[in-house]
Amino acid sequence: MLHAICLKIMMIYPVFYIYLLLFMISMLGVVTANNTILLYVFWELTSVSSFLLIAYWYGNRDSQFGALQSFMITVLGGLAMLTGFIMIYTVTGSNTITDIINDSHSIANSPLFIPIIIMLLIGAFTKSAQFPFHIWLPKAMVAPTPVSAYLHSATMVKAGIFLLFRFTPILGLSDFYIYCVTFVGLITMIFGAINAIRQFDLKGILAYSTISQLGMIVSMVGIGGGCCSTAHWRNGKGI
């Protein structure tokens, strides 16, 4: 019976579910890609699908503004990440992530190491709504409620944290990376928590509490608490 009800809903809103399916495929591509170019392509596809879903009620000006703002911030962050990947390729000569990680000391000894860190951090921080790039997430909550709950509090916003986890074996060789990630994460956590208690609508609370929790996880990554941040992540999502 529940299956039949779901099918009826999908028949009423077919475009919505096509956009949602596009996002699901893109997110799976992000977490399974072992090539930096593929990772970038799927990364930007999550931004495109997010834009389409936020702007689903295209007659609403708030939806238009929220979609455009989130798209601009996350896409520009993705371009910064791509710049970092290009610099990594110039050092290692490889686009395969496992090969890049195995050659981490060559990257750490390169004069491009700090620029690489900065570019990848911009990509991660924009996607995971870290301060000062957090401004897109509250505006994105004008999307239909399933989008707010699925994309903008559970999955897409974790892509930046996934990027940090993926490349911490390389980037973590720098104290600059450790201090930067920890500081930004803590600032975001405090800022999000303070703003969450000042909200009067459910989606506003969801947005800022999500920002705060993302900041907490990022700060744990920064202080080397990979196990702690993973435990917090799994506990928060009931996995």
UniProtKB/TrEMBL annotation:
One of its GO terms (biological process) is monoatomic ion transport. Pfam families: Proton_antipo_M. It is found in: Cell membrane; Membrane. Residues 33-223 form the NADH:quinone oxidoreductase/Mrp antiporter transmembrane domain. Its main location: membrane. GO terms for cellular component: plasma membrane. One of its GO terms (molecular function) is antiporter activity. The chain crosses the membrane at residues 12-31, 37-59, 71-92, 112-137, 149-170, 176-194, 206-233. Keywords: Antiport, Cell membrane, Ion transport, Membrane, Transmembrane, Transmembrane helix, Transport. It is a multi-pass membrane protein. This is Monovalent cation/H+ antiporter subunit A. The gene is mrpA_1.
